[in-house]
């Protein structure tokens, strides 16, 4: 390893118009060592200790990254140990050669090498992005160097500083997301399992807290949350329009939800959360005024529009909850159509109406039943009555647990009734009405 305490850095001539130092490409360790020797900070005894420790450290590093018996690995180990010591001295002493020389005097050479290695390991432990994902083994094998350490142990101090400056804000953003999620009952491990990213967690947490929620929402709750915000926004717009006579675009924008940082947010997270909060405020006009449904806006369920908010917000994936909500929604919609009547007569009346292309009803007046049959039996209107329409209606609207029974009921009815309903005989109208009175609900 290069150690030339007696060497001096070339400088410009004193007689030159300007005093300009030539570029000094030596490792910072070498410059600090030379400065220490020239200024009486490092004595002969310390130099001998460094000469003894350096080869030991080189062998250890060669073994750690490769093979201590191979000359190429030893050559790289020499470069690495000098680089690691330089990194630690330059980082801990702020580039001050006197402080660096004193650090070499007061501590062992190998401890300064370990200090540089620890700095790189700490750097590599910082995230490369704000995505949460399950931790993977950072070494090639048990006891091996962390991924990337071999490369970074040969990089410059400037590279180290630039990467540190890039990664620290990412860590801070993830830490802020973890804190906010924790306030809503979700821990870091759950975020990693969700494979989401910090910005989305922060955005959703801010909306959730603004709407006084105490848990991170799943999709069902997320939809409800946005629907509540839209309702509040529309009400505010209406009040303003009444008061002012009209609502200008400027005043409409002023009505967007006012978000604030959580009162108990730690100071170290305030700047990063404030920046994300501003992005949420920028999204609010789309969230509150969009004609798209919540699912189309956030979850890419629209064929006609590219949702601008796709991936920007987070919700807990809870398939069981979504299925339960869907089933309850379907049941409520079916109950509304049927009026809660699920007897065979009500269902068959409904299905006959659908198959005939009429509005679905569970009870028909005598007049409505007659008009329906005339429509079905109108000459040339065979295609106007389609049992398949009723079948599809059941599949799309009936509760899943009842669909098989309803389909069988309809199939059995069609086997018996289709020829009568679509008959063109002399008594076709009379026979069809008699059939509907017997099997369906027809009131006088």
Secondary-structure element pattern, one letter each = HHHHHHHHHHHHHHHEHHHHE
**Termini, distance in Å?**
108 Å
* Helical coverage, percent range: 55-70%
Reported for the largest beta sheet, the result is: 2 strands, parallel
SS element count, helices: 19
Strand order of the main beta sheet, please? 1-2
Spatial extent as radius of gyration: 38 Å
Question: What is the molecular shape?
Answer: elongated
Instruction: Return the average pLDDT rounded to an integer.
Output: 84
Residue windows where pLDDT falls under 50 for at least 5 positions: 4-21, 247-255
- The number of strands is 2
Q: What's the number of domains?
A: 3
- Helix/strand/pairing class, anyone? mainly alpha
| Amount of beta strand | under 5%
Describe this structure in words.
This protein is an all-alpha fold and 444 residues long. It has 3 domains: 28-129, no CATH class; 171-317, no CATH class; 322-443, no CATH class. The chain is 64% helix and 1% strand. The protein is built from 19 helices and 2 strands. It has helices at residues 28-38, 44-65, 71-93, 97-106, 109-125, 149-152, 157-183, 188-194, 198-210, 219-244, 249-254, 267-289, 294-298, 319-338, 344-355, 366-377, 387-397, 400-421, 428-439, and strands at residues 364-365, 442-443. It has a two-stranded parallel ribbon. It is elongated. The model is unreliable at 4-21 and 247-255 (pLDDT under 50).
